[in-house]
Amino acid sequence: GGWENDETVKEAAVREAIEEAGVRGDILVRVSKTHQDDSCPEGLCKAAMFALYVKEELQSWPEKSTRTRSWLPISEAVESCRHKWMEDALKHFTKWLEDKDVN
Question: Domain named Nudix hydrolase: which ranges (predicted)?
Fold first, then answer.
C-alpha cells in the first residue's frame, strides 16, 4: 500500500493494516527507516514498517478476497519476508521487545 498526500505515514500504516490485513489497533513503534526501492513497477517507492498493537480482527475487510491473514512467531515472519529491509525491521522490533521486557 501507500500513503496519500493528506495523511501522515503513521495514518497510512493504520489505514493499510485495515485494508490489507483486516486489523485495527495502535501503533507502538516505527521499526524501520523509510526505505526507498527502485525495483517497484511504478518507479521509486518509499516504504516504512510499524509495529501495531492489534485490538480488533475484522471479519471482513477491503482486500480479504486477495489476501490471507495469518499470525506467525516473529522468527517465522522474518523467514517469510520478501525483502531484506523487512527482515531488518522485524529484527529491530524483536530487539525493541527485548529491551521493553528488561525495563
Answer: 1-94
